[in-house]
Amino acid sequence: xxxxxxxxxxxxxxxxxxxxxxxxxxxxxxxxxxxxxxxxxxxxxxxxxxxxxxxxxxxxxxxxxxxxxxxxxxxxxxxxxxxxxxxxxxxxxxxxxxxxxxxxxxxxxxxxxxxxxxxxxxxxxxxxxxxxxxxxxxxxxxxxxxxxxxxxxxxxxxxxxxxxxxxxxxxxxxxxxxxxxxxxxxxxxxxxxxxxxxxxxxxxxxxxxxxxxxxxxxxxxxxxxxxxxxxxxxxxxxxxxxxxxxxxxxxxxxxxxxxxxxxxxxxxxxxxxxxxxxxxxxxxxxxxxxxxxxxxxxxxxxxxxxxxxxxxxxxxxxxxxxxxxxxxxxxxxxxxxxxxxxxxxxxxxxxxxxxxxxxxxxxxxxxxxxxxxxxxxxxxxxxxxxxxxxxxxxxxxxxxxxxxxxxxxxxxxxxxxxxxxxxxxxxxxxxxxxxxxxxxxxxxxxxxxxxxxxxxx
Length: 457
Fold this sequence. Notes:
By secondary structure, this protein is an all-alpha fold. The chain has two domains: 27-45 and 66-223, Vanadium-containing Chloroperoxidase, domain 2 (Orthogonal Bundle), CATH 1.10.606; 250-450, Vanadium-containing Chloroperoxidase, domain 2, CATH 1.10.606. Helices cover 58% and strands 0% of the residues. Helix 4 packs antiparallel against helix 5 (104-132). The model is unreliable at 1-23 (pLDDT under 50).
C-alpha cells in the first residue's frame, strides 16, 4: 500500500497525540535500592534539581518549544519513545556489531558491558528520582501540551537521557571510530524528551551526566577484563586431540566473569576417551542419524541464522520482543535488568565453556572419522563441550526466569539449538550432555544472584 506524504503526516499525528493528564508517579519506587554490578550505594545521586526560579525559566522555554514541533521532531519523539530506553540502544549496538561480523562471544561481552552500564545507571537514576520527586513539567503549566504521556515516575533525572549517556559512552569505547555518531544519537535521544514536553532540560542534562559517569566505571572494567589478551600458546598434539590451526579465541577461557567465582568453577569432567567403545557409539550416532530436509534446515538455521556470528542478534530480538509483550515501556529499570542478565549469562557461559574446551582440546567428530559428512562446516575450536549447548540452554533458562509466561517456549528453543549440533554432525552426544549441565549451572548462579538483587516483591 502506498502512503502519500499528507497521509503519512496524518498517520504520525494520530500516533502522537497531545496529552495533558499527569500520570501516577510510582513506577518501581524501590528500584534505587536494587543491587548493581559496577557502582555501589548512593554514590551517583545527582545534585538537587534547579530552584523554583530556574524551573520557571525552563517551563517558559518548554511552552515555546511546543509550538515548534514539526514532523521531524515528532518522528524522533516516536522513535525514542518506542519500548524502554534500553530497546533502541540494543538495536543501535547490534547494527554495528553485525556490520563488523563480530564473533558472538565478543559481541555478548560488549552487549553485557553496555546493558550493565544502562542498568546500573538506571538504578542510580531511580535513587535520585524518588529522593527528589520532581513532577513532570505539565503538572506545573496547564498550557504545556505534551506529545506523549508523561512516564509514571518522577521527572528528574530523565531516564532516556540516563540510558543515552551510559550506552553511547560504552559504545564509543567499543567502537572508537564511531564515537561521534553514538554521542550524536545520545543527544538526539535526550532532546526528544524535551521536545515531547515530558522532561525539563535540566532533567536530561542531569541524566546524561549520570549515564556517562556510570559508563566510565563500566569501561574501566571492560579494559581490565582480559578480552584483549593475545594467545601465545600452541595447539597440543597427540591421540584424541583437536588437530586444527588458529583456534578461535583460546584466551576467552581467561576473561573475567560476572558471576562465576572463577573461569573453571563449572569445568566439565574429562571427555570420553577417543578410542573407547562409548566414543565409537557416539560417532555411530552421528553417522547413522536419519537426516531429513527439516533437520538439515534447522541445523543450518541454528548455525547461520541464529548461531555462529549471529546468535547475539537472535537472542537480542527475543529479549526486545518480550520486553514489549510484557509492557515494560515505562519500567526502565526492570527492562534494563531484563536486558543485562541474559548477556551476563551468555558471557559467563562462553567463558566457562571455553575453559573446558581449552583444558581438554578434544578432537572433533570429522577429525576422528574423515568419512563423516557434516551439514555445516565445523567451527574452528575443540569439540568438548558444545558451545551451543553451553550458551543456548543457559540463556533460555534465564529468559524463562525473566519472562515466566514464556518459560516453556524458551526451554524448547534452547533444546532445539542444542540438538541441532547432533543433526549437523559436528558434536558428540557427550559434548551436548556436559554442555547442558554446565549451562544450567551458570544459569542457576545468575538466577540465584538475580533473586537477591532486591527487584523481586
